[in-house]
Amino acid sequence: MKPVIIFDVNETMLDMTPLKVKINALLDCNKGFRIWFGMLLQYSLVDNCTNNYHNFTDLADATLEMAAKALEAEEAAEKRKEALQTIKQLSAYNDVPKGLQLLKDEGFRLATLTNSPSTTLSVQLQNANLTHFFEATLSIDTIEKYKPALETYRWAAEQLSVDVSGAVLVAAHGWDVAGALQAGMQAAFIERKGQSLYPLAPKPQFKGKNLIEVANSIIVYYKKTT
After folding, report:
1. Residue ranges of the domains in the chain?
2. What CA–CA distance (Å, rounded) separates 41 from 148?
3. Residues 9, 210, 44, CA angle at the centre, nearest 5°?
4. Model confidence pLDDT, tens digit, residues 125-171
5. CATH code at 4-15+90-225
6. CATH class, range 17-88
7. What is the pTM of this model?
């Protein structure tokens, strides 16, 4: 049987360049986005480890305030919130619609799994004109456990009525790929600029420079095995 293809959203399908520009300007640092985003992921794991939960929007604001203090940047709550609203207005990478269509035309089921809240995800997919590709748009907001927690990937598979081994996670983040593989999923890595695989984790089954390459790799593999 063909697997369900599950997509990460931010940086995997959506180009976060406008958000990076806003955050770098806000923090007055050309690496401000990278510093902030690293803190955002770190404190999402703090929530996981302490059995606590704050949605990704609240975590983003809190860690942006922390990053500003660390970088001694002058900022205000209104400016933080204004900058963070940019995440709802991102465009898809040029390769994404074609890659999704290739998979859909071959009969693969498509879904999302993101750390963003469901309300944010809905707006993002609508603005990027991607909603129609997906049969399910899953957010960890429902289970309240951030990726790369293993139970989150297994929960997503349950929601899609497949065994975890019958799903492929597509992501541009090494940590996301590592989590999916450890949970028992297959995985595909998109080599977006600035992203790399975690060298100490298992290797993904599929890899490509963009979603078109990844989609073709998945299609060719499953044509050979079915």
Report:
1. 4-15+90-225, 17-88
2. 10
3. 30
4. 999 999 999 999 999 999 999 999 999 999 999 999 999 999 999 99
5. 3.40.50.1000
6. mainly alpha
7. 0.96
